[in-house]
Batch of 2 targets.
Target 1
Amino acid sequence: MVPPPAASEDELLRRAQTGDRAAADTLLRQHYDRVYAIARRITGNDADALDATQDALIAIVRGLPRYDGRSAFSTWVYRVTTNACLDELRRRRRRPLPTEILPDALSTGPETRWEDTLAQRDELDTGLLQLPEQYRAPLVLRDVVGMDYAEIAAALELPPGTVRSRIARGRASLANALTGNQTDPLSRQRERDD
Amino acid sequence: MIDEERDELLARLVDGQALPGDEEALAADSGLRDELELHRALRSRLAIVPDPPGPDVRDALIGRALDELAPVALDTDTEEKSDRTVRSLHGRRPAPKGAWMAAAAVLVAVAIGLLSLTERSRSEQFMAGEEAESLAVADEMADEEASAEAGDMMGAMAEEDDSADSAAALEREAVDGDAGFVWPPELDGCAGDLEGLIPIGGDIRFIDDGPTGLLVELTDPAQPGAPRFVQVDSSTCEITEVDDADR
């Protein structure tokens, strides 16, 4: 027996918006891995990522009837997810931050490749958590989800130029933190702002 | 090249959005090439996310979310936000003072009407009474009636006073209630700002933390299916509208 052709995202959306549980289930499963990935990278740990993922999925389901198609569904999903993650971070703000990165522990020999250096370290999460949220969210959407600058701008409701500069500063700051470089681009930015 | 320009150049190169001249700048700067390698490695590393929990957890998360589907899809006007922390204010905004005063006036009018009906009935009974009774008895009865009527009058007057007191008490309660919502401690200082937003007869619910402060839902009896959402910065009492669909 030939299985029926898979429904398009538009068709699934239309059905989900009228209360079709199976259609909504399919949509959520299609985006689940990326929703979790965003949550994991923005919150920095498994437990908070699960909470944020649950909140995001619920917000997506609740928002389905009001999704109007002005942006791509995936863009809207990741926007809702990002907001759920930021909400989760605020709720858990009283939790102490992970131990700061120790430059000595990050020193590498001349023969060490960057991939090896970064892959060995759980400090990536810590470095990300040390980035202010306004830098972390666009960087995660870019590097984890692969959204382009225009999509990130739409998702975060920011001008594209702001997205570009935040990704540049955020990535440079994270790289400096992970390599023990004391020149933090965000500090430069703050000093200039002051 | 200043540092900010260098960061943006690296971002363009990493993200495949190089401008004319970027490649030449890269070719001429070995330090830049090292940084580019680092940034590319960083991007690759970021993209590797720890595996999500197993399918059981995924199914549970999705199933829990789908439980929200039916009420949302079938009746968006009565959408419940059951998973959020809702802090009720234990009461709705009371009706305006005028309504209580009108109710008090009606109570007083009813009391006076009942009193005069009673008096007329007693008077008719007396006139139709047995004429054989002596004047003395009649006088005595009249005295007793007068006394009783005086007592009734006093009672009625006291009742009127009670009614007036009750109305006044209700009115005081209304006024007190107007300014006496049970605010969460973090919003106590913003009570005045928030009260101005509550429609007459409307309700207010505190949901939980929003992106920039406490999220508050305001309902208006004139628009039962279209609650407003605002966020309140508890430190500045700044209030901003929120589109809940985007949360």
Target 2
Amino acid sequence: MQVPLAQSAPKQKTRKKLLRELARHWQLFVLLLLPIIYLIVFQYWPMYGVQIAFKNFQAPLGITGSPWVGWRHFDRFINSYDFQRTLQNTLVLSVYSLVVGFPFPIALALCLNYVGKRWFKSTVQLVTYAPYFISTVVMVGIILQFLAPNTGLINMIIQKLGFQQVNFMGRPELFAHIYVWSGLWQTLGFNCVIYLAALSGVDPTLHEAAIVDGASKLKRIWYIDLPELMPLAILLLILSMGGILSTGFEKILLMQNPLNLRTSDVIDTYVYRVGIASAVPNYSYASAIGLFKSVIGLILVIMVDRFAKRMGQAGAL
Amino acid sequence: MLTQHRGIREGRGDQIFTIINYAILTVVLIVVLYPLIYIVSASFSHPRAVTSGQVWLWPVEPTLAGYEAVFKHKYLMSGFGNSIYYTVVGTIINVIMTVLAAYPLSRPDLPFRRTITFLFYFTTLFSGGLIPLYLVIRELGMLDTRWSLLLPGAISVWNVLIMRTYFQTTIPRELFEAAQLDGCDDFGYLWKVVLPLAGPILAVIALFYAIGHWNSYFSAMLYLQRKELWPLQLVLREILIQNQFDPNMMSNIDPQQLALRQQMSELLKYTLIVVASAPLMIVYPFVQRHFVKGIMLGSIKG
């Protein structure tokens, strides 16, 4: 009899203390009220609704009333022809983007760092940032305009040089190149900002000592700047691995057409097509695919986070 | 940096390096700039000149025909208005909600702080996905209303975390203790101390949100059927991507222009690209500094 009493006394005390704490901070909770309602309605309610991935959703029965079907939708997706195709396209597009998007901003930052004329440096920066502000719709509009047969700038140049026109958007094998290189054009300047900032943080005495020792600029880039940038660059690369299954959905969707679908259909666009755009939308099947992607994405992010932390501890940063 | 070393003469190797460096950067400059110049020039050229490939650098037979057509197009103008509405109202909601979330989370004495922060953070790791969110919006009766573009994205958790870190690192704790001694409550402290000091971060966050609103098309495509509610980007999608340009959408069209319809629709696309991008392109050199700061703030968090 004594034991529970002895336990409950401090418990009551802490509860009282907690209540007093809460009462003292009631204004903070009032401030948090709207954001938390937002989280519940637009973030956690959909998470609750994701159970339709294990059900056969029928609108009149609602989310909770629809019958359970277990893993059927997942089975169907993994065994379908679309699974391999969409997964492969997703990986090809995002890995290709990472490989191209990684070195160029670093190179640009290094080049800009050795420009003596201020006006030239700021002009290059101003111009290369600009495309970042172009919307996805307009960006894809530009791509389509430039690559159009007959009237597009690129095809007119090709013709002027005496070659055959190319139907760029109709050739599945060109899709990845168009997607990735147009992406580089748009984000090069923006992604270079962070490296420029890192370079401005390099200890100037290192450069001074190297100059006294007669090191050329190339040597200084190789032995001073690059080693300074590498930890940051690798960290950013690792972090971007976390989102490898979900890159550029909105842009890909706009660039898609029936002719290039073979190489342009990624998991996200597939979900959109079977779940929303279809004449007979299959909410459950599409949710299952979305959930499959989210779970793998979550695992990747956690792994990447662990890895990045361990690197940080190993002294890479 | 180079000014410090001006006293030392460059070696031959470094001179070559400098020349190559400038050459590379000039190429980069041209590669980025040329398409932009071409688009602007094409938008001011005669429709025939655009489709027959006479435009290379500067406008050929300059006209404003494309611009006149854009401003006569019914849904383009309503799209412009809608986009301004979504951007202004949406950004105001975003900033208020972000402050409401970020300020309490920045207070070390907030009870259950870790739990609440995790509640926010978890949504960046995992989400219900496209379809469940769509069903929620439908359930709430927000399909085909302006709310569907304003509320579902009311908070970006990344921005909350950035702002929280800013509050924690830039506003000295002594200020809070002094305010408390003066009998200032939490509302008063937020209003009289935190917000007046938060100018830079508010500007950066508002900028990020506003650009997001102006440039987004996907939510509108998902939720809005009624064309009167469409933002500019969605109208653009119809014309630029799906190639649906209906000349009947232009009132007072004159017959001569009808004959030029095909060429006109090509010209119109270049004009649209310019008109849709102009607002941000004009504003961005002035806010570039803030933007760079924002990237840096964001990366501190990451």
